[in-house]
Amino acid sequence: MTTVGVLALQGSFNEHMAALRRIGVKGVEIRKEEQLQTVDALIIPGGESTTMAKLAHYHNLFPALREFASTGKPVWGTCAGLIFLANKAIGQKSGGQELIGGLDCIVNRNFFGSQLQSFETELSVPKLAEEEGGPNGFRGVFIRAPAILEVGPDVEILADCPVPLETKKSLMSVDNGQEEEMLVSRERVIVAVRQGNLLGTAFHPELTSDLRWHSFFLKMKKDSSERSLQHVPTSGTDLEDSLGKRPLDLPIYE
């Protein structure tokens, strides 16, 4: 029986644990390095990425998290968890934050704006529908969400979404030159990707009653022939230079 760990330092880990229970899978809250040895897959939930990174650093979890991902066991990052898995992140707070790395992509940490700019939108998810059945649409819940700006050649894009007008207005109000101009010119951004054993979503599937993303994740099996992923950790200063039907039971946005 598959046992799934959920990093439980901060954020929406309870909601992921509840989703796992609903599909009959054992979930384990992960707060210590040794607990990672007891699970077959790992979810890194949404939350406040800087706070989560500080807590993970305090508990010396980053080396163990990188090692876990490099073994080929499935790892899924939602929202803040997506930021953790990215090789590069921009738009971070002063000093940046430590990353796990592994996903060959550049993430803008707070692309869609503040908590007040949180929103829901219908996403086209043909790969998810092909694998898990159901409609081609999925109701994405975006809460102070990141976006993926660029991906490498080995990254499979699973969903993108249009840039809301309010996001464009917010970006236009910040006068930081060429980077903001580039962001404002975008019509769509990537919000879900997979690379090998790593899955990343900028939105929160755990806040809906649609469990297809959790089922999709659980079917990502370890490929023993796959080479270990090369992680690009680290922080802040180096990264600033790089560039259908509405599901029911939404506990935050009914």
From TrEMBL:
The active site is at C79 (nucleophile), H204 (charge relay system), E206 (charge relay system). It comes from the Eukaryota. L-glutamine binds at G47, E48, S49, R109, I143, R144. GO terms for cellular component: cytosol; glutaminase complex. Pfam families: SNO (PF01174). Gene3D superfamilies: 3.40.50.880. GO terms for biological process: pyridoxal phosphate biosynthetic process; pyridoxine metabolic process. GO terms for molecular function: glutaminase activity; lyase activity. Coiled coil: none annotated. Keywords: Glutamine amidotransferase, Hydrolase, Lyase. InterPro entries: Class_I_gatase-like, PdxT/SNO, PdxT/SNO_CS. PROSITE patterns: GATASE_TYPE_1, PDXT_SNO_1, PDXT_SNO_2. Residues 227-254 are annotated as: Disordered. It catalyses: L-glutamine + H2O = L-glutamate + NH4(+). Its EC number is 3.5.1.2. Belongs to the glutaminase PdxT/SNO family. HAMAP family: PdxT (MF_01615). This is glutaminase. It comes from Ensete ventricosum.
